[in-house]
Amino acid sequence: MDALHELTAIELRDRLSRGELTPTEVTEHFLERIARIDPAVGAFARVTPEAARRRATALEQAGPTSDLLWGLPTADKDLWNRAGVPTGLGSRAFAGEHAFVPDVSDEIVEQLDAVGVVSLGKSATPELGLPAYTEPLTGPPARSPWDTSRGAGGSSGGAAAAVAAGLVPVAPGSDGGGSIRIPAAACGVVGLKPSRGLVPAGSGIESAGGLVVAGPIARTTADAALLLEAMITWLPDGRPAHPYTLRAPSGDSGTYLAAARTGELPGGGSARVAVTTSSAWDDFYDITVSPEALAGLEVGTAALSALGHELTDVSLAPAPEYGDAFRALWMAGASAIPIDDPERLAMLEPLTQWLVGVGRTVPARRLVEALRVLTAFERRLVAQVSAYDAVVTPALAMTPRPLGWFDAEDPERNFEQQCQYTPFTSMLNVAGLPAITVPVSWTEDGLPMGVQLIGRPGGEVTILALAAQLEDRLRWPDRRPPVW
User: Fold this and answer.
1) Residues with catalytic roles
2) What's this model's pTM, rounded to 2 decimal places?
């Protein structure tokens, strides 16, 4: 039998459901890998082995069920509450005497429990999930398993690193400005940001500006689709799990998974794909796409062309108003953190202090104006994207960044660096569009480079099918990082 971490999540799920493996066997295998490998990777903020063993035992005693992920191990992002487990939020302000141990789990955690997962602990995140890199002062950095001198990206950096290193088969993340897609790209795995409103728990409807949604990270496109299916399961009585769900499958719930397994586009045939290296940040910061990112884009577009798709080079409409408006919204969102005590505020990292401090001075009128500007931008971008079946960009503008590359003392410069590293992601949170990043090539130094496929609103099936076609041609799951 193959080593369990070599199996895809679907293969593991199937063997568990057939009784060929038990949740305890699978749980122990991955706990052993975490103990042995994670010190070099930093994927976990906290491991909960005893709770994981109790959960696995309880599942075994109840016996295999039809739950979509029965017995499959994963990890909770450390921005989410799990009852009885400290929520660290990647911050010194929530550690030690200020530690927070919730009595109630968040909705996304309850949803994953309901489909049968075994949580092995908390995946690492930067402070409050705000930066695009995971190097919190409260613990070790999350590193790319391909080169542990490079960061895993953020804010779901621990989740992506854990998947890439084979510490869990799949992991959920959240994405408010690229926080699933950025670390997935930096770690050479698949990361999907769903359409706003699609995932019942973490739909984006309730977050500031509708930016933050929950989504899957996996090594294969099909595994990502499997986790997406699990996140949007209907309740037993047939009602959607959340009143604001955009769309959830009923009856035959294999829509997304089928597209990811077969690569079949809706209606069959080929796709019209736009290719661009422009972004909403181009008129605000000096954005330069590196040769490595362009080379990755060339690999991805050449593969799409060879697959018979029609490619067209395009430039996005200029958006000089975007930068100021997005910054105002991002800072206003940061201002709502539940800390008012000056001593605790002083425990925050310089970037977070700046975002919170400036955010708390943003007047209501400025926030309303920013939202109006971003709503107009959303409509323009949706119109542009909807003219095609998909739009492809580089996943990142640079190679995965060395640890310590982001300026820790100058928050303004730090924010600029993040936008220069990840110019293609936040605009899709503003527009509520689905997007998936997939690895397509590796540099001479062994660093993963990827592309981002952007879909129309609700266009997950199309981008999953295109990602599956790329995976079948480029075979990225066959590669393993040095820590493997």
Assistant:
1) 77, 155, 179
2) 0.96
